[in-house]
Design a protein that fits this description.
Structural class: alpha+beta
Number of strands: 14
Largest sheet: 5 strands, antiparallel
Strand content: 15-25%
Order of helices and strands: EEEEHEEHEEHEHHEHHEHEEEHH
Strand order of the largest sheet: 1-13-12-3-2
């Protein structure tokens, strides 16, 4: 796995290309070997964290930032630590070499040795021996001679395009053209069929890599036109880290693996083989796509048939529901019509009943009115008869009273006449004058009696 570190010391960096922010920084590492005590108690362990803490205290005021266990045995443990620059390596060696530390729980004193880390970078002797001593290579053919550099663990962000975010071959070509003319560049990550080519060409198990799977870093092959360009590039990258200067205050460095190509990756035969494999894979891919298309068409046809059947079933169910709905509606309409007819019949019967009752009531009222009229007429007749009878009685009584009055009048008149006659006789006797007054008085009395009888 490739680790990126933030670099603050830019005193020893070397710019690769003037138009790119990529630099080379020398790798400065030290090996710190600590002898381990014998473990006498079962289950007793030694903490790497405690060892690192003791080494940091021992190295102070120098700072040890990173620790990597490069080798561990029962007798000793070796740490690999990266320092800021090569100039300070001797200071770290002087501070740690032939020193000792003591751990809690262990009576023994642990010895510490420190030395500069050896480089595993390939040399000219390595590729001369590799290509010169083998009969499998033809130095007249590109890719079968020392002209191709293999770089792995390169961060994608160092060469990614600002617009697409994909690793740009043009940037790689631009960077390595500093060392000479580039014949060919191959970045396997950019070929979508490369994983299939590898799987078809080898049966070796490929371990899981988070970096490669997540595509945070990539590998590439750079082939130069001539050997001096190859040698200059290898010399420049020897014991160097690749550094990206993001801004004036921040730089990120990463240790990449640089080696010469040992697999004839960019030879004509390998390129033809990959092209053939790629064509086979493309053909297989087309066949797979055709099969997938046919399977998809079959699946779509099957789905279409199912959908058609489902639509037909749905249509049948809809028609059945419609028929049931119509039947229910007809039944409901019939029930409503029957209910309306029954209601009309009931209303007619009720009206007829009301009419008959009304007729009976009219007849009864008429009969009662007639009876009342007869009773009234009878009462009126009886009243009239009674009034007539009373009137006759009254008239008879009046007649009798009149008769009685007449009789009384006649009697009084006769009495008065007698009295007057007597007076007249007396007046006659006494004088004519007296007789005249008497006659006048008599006439007055008669007139008054006549008027009173008329009033009665």
């Amino acid at each position: 796995m490739t680790y990126q570190t933030v670099v603050t010391d830019l005193s020893d960096v070397k710019r690769i290309h003037q138009q790119m922010d990529l630099y080379l920084k020398p790798i400065a590492k030290v090996y710190i070997t600590v002898s381990l005590p014998k473990l006498k108690i079962a289950g007793q362990t030694i903490s790497n964290w405690e060892l690192q803490k003791k080494l940091k205290e021992l190295c102070a005021p120098l700072i040890l930032k990173t620790f990597t266990v490069s080798k561990s045995t029962m007798e000793y443990i070796r740490f690999e630590s990266e320092v800021s620059n090569r100039a300070s390596v001797k200071s770290y060696v002087a501070a740690l070499d032939y020193k000792s530390i003591k751990l809690a729980g262990f009576p023994e004193i642990l010895k510490v040795n420190c030395s500069e880390a050896k480089s595993s970078f390939p040399t000219r002797q390595d590729w001369d021996e590799y290509f010169g001593d083998s009969n499998l290579f033809d130095e007249t053919q590109p890719g079968e001679r020392p002209d191709t550099i293999y770089l792995s663990g390169v961060p994608c962000q160092f060469f990614s395009d600002s617009k697409t975010g994909i690793v740009s071959t043009d940037k790689v070509d631009k960077l390595f053209s500093v060392y000479g003319k580039v014949r060919n560049i191959d970045i396997p990550m950019l070929d979508p069929y490369r994983s299939d080519v590898k799987s078809s060409s080898t049966k070796n198990f490929k371990p899981f890599s988070y970096v490669n799977d997540a595509q945070l870093s990539f590998a590439m092959y750079v082939q130069f036109q001539n050997y001096p360009s190859f040698e200059e590039c290898m010399s420049s990258f020897r014991n160097m880290k690749l550094l990206l200067l993001e801004n004036s205050d921040k730089a990120v460095a990463v240790s990449i693996k640089v080696d010469f190509d040992r697999s004839k990756h960019l030879s004509d035969q390998s390129i033809r083989h990959r092209l053939m494999e790629k064509e086979k894979i493309e053909k297989l891919q087309r066949q797979r796509e055709e099969e997938k298309r046919k399977e998809k068409e079959k699946a779509e046809e099957k789905v279409r048939r199912k959908e058609e059947e489902a639509r037909r079933e749905q249509e049948v169910r809809r028609q059945r529901r419609e028929e049931r709905r119509k039947r229910k509606k007809q039944e409901k309409d019939m029930q409503i019509a029957a209910a309306k007819a029954a209601y009309r019949i009931a209303m007619e019967e009720r009206k007829l009943k009301f009419a008959s009752r009304r007729l009976e009531a009219i007849r009864l009222v008429t009969y009662l009115c007639q009876r009342v009229q007869r009773d009234i007429e009878a009462e009126e007749t009886e009243r009239k008869r009674r009034n007539a009878r009373e009137l006759r009685v009254v008239e008879e009584r009046k007649r009798k009273e009149v008769e009685e009055k007449k009789q009384r009048f006649y009697k009084e008149h006769e009495l008065k006449s007698r009295i007057l006659k007597r007076k007249l006789e007396e007046e006659y006797k006494y004088g004519r004058r007296s007789n005249t007054n008497a006659n006048q008085q008599q006439q007055k009395q008669q007139r008054s009696s006549t008027s009173s009888s008329n009033r009665r």
